[in-house]
């Protein structure tokens, strides 16, 4: 990006604003980004003129504008997560001969964006568009394990937050935290018969360059086939697919 410093700086400003829950003074933006105040004011003026930044005059602060929201909405309409993940998911299914699915987090639910099925494997409930409680699924546990503890606590404020399925799954924040700690230690999430009896799944998160979870990839297999060697192979191949998708969704800066 060395040949387009103004564009890089404008994107840095927008990313900086996106990381704050409240509008930010221009001086703080300049300080945090290590940019001259004059340059920051110029960038903010241009971004404000295009609607990407809102200027709260009385507070002397700046926040994201409506154009940033519209850009995010257009991103969602184009379904880039599923589009960029599809080829890696197909290769993964070809390698392991098991069904695989790709999901993202929405509150306390996971939403399945993509499913690739292998021949001869059982039909799953995880069709595209299906929502399931995150704390009951391998995909959800993988995503939750990559979130800050405060974020998880906010999602699950009380026991009423813990929906049950087939009488299984964590029933409290303490139980969920234990599952997430094990997931982080193992490097992958696993659920056994929680979603569908006799079926198990492993999952790993797809992270952006800041380590935030964008989505998760899960592979489902018959529980009787879950030998340690088989699970280790599935995890390794799934992690490779997640790394590939992560690089496509959140490429390193030049």
From TrEMBL:
Residues 67-251 form the IclR-ED domain. Keywords: DNA-binding, Transcription, Transcription regulation. Residues 4-66 form the HTH iclR-type domain. SUPFAM superfamilies: GAF domain-like (SSF55781), Winged helix' DNA-binding domain (SSF46785). GO terms for molecular function: DNA binding; DNA-binding transcription factor activity. One of its GO terms (biological process) is negative regulation of DNA-templated transcription. InterPro entries: GAF-like_dom_sf (IPR029016), HTH_MetabolicPath_Reg (IPR050707), Tscrpt_reg_IclR_C (IPR014757), Tscrpt_reg_IclR_N (IPR005471), WH-like_DNA-bd_sf (IPR036388), WH_DNA-bd_sf (IPR036390). It comes from the Bacteria. This is IclR family transcriptional regulator.
């Amino acid at each position: 990006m060395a040949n387009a410093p103004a564009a890089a700086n404008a994107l840095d400003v927008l990313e900086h604003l996106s990381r704050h829950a409240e509008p930010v003074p221009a001086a703080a933006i300049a300080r945090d980004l290590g940019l001259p105040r004059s340059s920051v004011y110029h960038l903010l003026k241009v971004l404000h003129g295009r609607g990407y930044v809102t200027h709260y005059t009385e507070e002397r602060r700046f926040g994201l504008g409506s154009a940033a929201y519209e850009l995010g909405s257009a991103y969602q309409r184009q379904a880039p997560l599923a589009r960029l993940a599809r080829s890696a998911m197909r290769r993964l299914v070809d390698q392991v001969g098991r069904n695989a699915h790709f999901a993202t987090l929405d509150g306390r639910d996971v939403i399945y964006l993509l499913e690739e099925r292998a021949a001869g494997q059982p039909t799953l409930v995880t069709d595209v568009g299906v929502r399931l409680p995150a704390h009951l699924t391998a995909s959800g546990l993988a995503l939750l394990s990559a979130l800050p503890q405060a974020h998880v606590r906010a999602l699950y404020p009380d026991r009423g937050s813990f929906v049950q399925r087939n009488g299984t799954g964590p029933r409290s924040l303490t139980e969920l935290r234990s599952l997430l700690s094990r997931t982080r230690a193992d490097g992958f999430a696993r659920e056994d018969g929680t979603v569908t009896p006799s079926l198990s799944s492993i999952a790993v998160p797809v992270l952006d360059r800041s380590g935030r979870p964008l989505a998760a990839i899960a592979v489902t297999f018959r529980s009787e086939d879950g030998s340690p060697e088989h699970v280790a192979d599935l995890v390794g191949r799934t992690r490779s697919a997640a790394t590939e998708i992560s690089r496509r969704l959140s490429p390193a800066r030049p």
